[in-house]
Amino acid sequence: MLYSGLANRVNRYAWLGIVLVIGEGITLLVFKMFCPLTKKARKYSDTDRDNFDIFLPNWLAKYNKLIFTSIFY
Q1: How far is residue 50's CA from residue 39's CA, in Å, rounded to a whole number?
Q2: Is the pLDDT of residue 26 over 80?
Q3: pLDDT at 15 over 90
Q4: Per-residue burial over 1-17, b = 16 or more CB atoms within 10 Å of its CB, e = otherwise
Q5: I need a labelling partner for 6 at 20 to 30 A (CA). Which of 14, 38, 48, 64 fits?
Q6: What phi-psi label fits residue 47: left (phi over 0), alpha (psi between -120 and 50 degrees) or beta?
Q7: pLDDT for residue 60 is more than 90
Q8: How far apart are CA 6 and CA 33, in angstroms?
């Protein structure tokens, strides 16, 4: 989507990406800003850190929704 915006070439793949991001946002709103898969994974983990299920530093995992949503808009 970044390339599509920089090159000013909006095609069906750009629209598909936009629809997927909006769908993810709706999913997060329905589940009160938590991914439903993360809730399931918490049952199988003994840690309460924010990055227990993704390979990101803890500071980035804590704020990833805010950071990446801001970049998207």
Answers
A1: 12
A2: yes
A3: yes
A4: eeeeeeeeeeeeebeee
A5: 64
A6: beta
A7: no
A8: 30
